Amino acid sequence: MSRYSSVFKDESKLDINYVPHTLLHRKLQLNLLNQFFRFAVENPGGMTQRALIMGNIGTGKTVLSQHFGLDITKEAKQRNINLNYIHINCRECKGSLFMILQRTIMKFYPNFPRRGYSAEELLQALMQILDDKDAYLILTLDELETLVQNEGSDPLYNLSRIQEDRINAPKRLSLICILRQPEHLENLDPSTRSTLQRNIIRLDDYSEAQLEDILADRVSLAFRDGTVPTQTLTLIAELGNCERGNARYSIELLWRAGKYADASELRDVSPECVRNAVASVYPVVRKDMIHEFSLHEKLFLLGVARHFKQTDSVYISMGEAEESYALVCEEYGETGRGHTQLWKYVKTLSAAGVIETTVSGVGQRGKTTLIGLPRVPAADLEQELVKILMQGGR
Ligand SMILES: Nc1ncnc2c1ncn2[C@@H]1O[C@H](COP(=O)(O)OP(=O)(O)O)[C@@H](O)[C@H]1O
Ligand SMILES: [Mg+2]
Prior knowledge:
Number of strands: 8
Low-confidence stretches: none
CATH class of the largest domain: Alpha Beta
Largest sheet: 5 strands, parallel
Helix content: 40-55%
Distance between the termini: 45 Å
Strand order of the largest sheet: 2-3-4-1-5
Structural class: alpha/beta
Bound molecules: adenosine-5'-diphosphate, magnesium ion
Strand content: 5-15%
């Protein structure tokens, strides 16, 4: 029997859903959130609040909000206030207010009937539940772009209005919105937008040194003592820094590097383990994410991937992408969707971070949208998509 013992002592500390006890380098932003929502423990019912957290992928938006949620509900409890923090990912809810509200209500009543209500009715039901329980709610809408893309500005407008309609009743529902792409703000109605813009918390990309601190903290929680040498940490921080200070990518690299060490029965996690890990992690594109795209989004993405396989350029035009998509549709015996629909796909795919878009010749006539694929090798993406499409993953 092998006497090898793992470099890990607790892998769960590297899980994407783990909320660390200390948030490094985000003290200011955490304080700001606490300021915005101070009333929730000092004068609950007196007012409501809406705040917006913005920043690139892996800048700690989700974890900041969750951390704040834990802190404030703990304080409320000490003061005997029934304050709830509920964190909902809009992408997981397919950008549907209905599903978001359903999940929210089910946090209070897990057996709440799934059918028979409209979104509007669910919202009324939620307010009723809060009244019945004399409860207050801070609802976080994470990855808000999917909701805005799917249903426009109505959901946020309705979530705000329901409070304003309740003139003499206590105010119970506050919102935290989390958004990666500022351009989605333009799609909101002016009053929602201006409130959010007043209470904005921006998270800058982490520097290399900051990433190293975050990683070192996580190493002490997840790895056995002395199994991760400093040069390994430095290398991962450097790589994370190249990905725009992406802490998520860095932590995933750290985890995978540890896995390589274990697989090779090494005593510590060497830089070579990191290099092996790099080859297997796509910084942003997770396979489970690809599964969630619709059939034609997948076909469009396949067209984009194929095009990039054949060219050395960093961007392709929307026109080129459309041509490539048309070929893919032919191959799969599907009728190609129209231009307007393809625009929506581009938006979804870029909100998910798989592709990136930019506009050429801004300010000139005939400006055109360009599509880039910065985070995943085109050949790997193609292979993955073909596999999913073959399995009938439509
Ligand atoms: N300041 C921080 N301190 C400790 N861990 C952090 C910090 N910022 C981010 N992380 C970790 O990095 C990963 C990505 O953070 P996350 O909140 O998911 O980023 P975002 O939501 O902006 O994409 C998570 O595992 C999170 O726990
Ligand atoms: Mg997030």
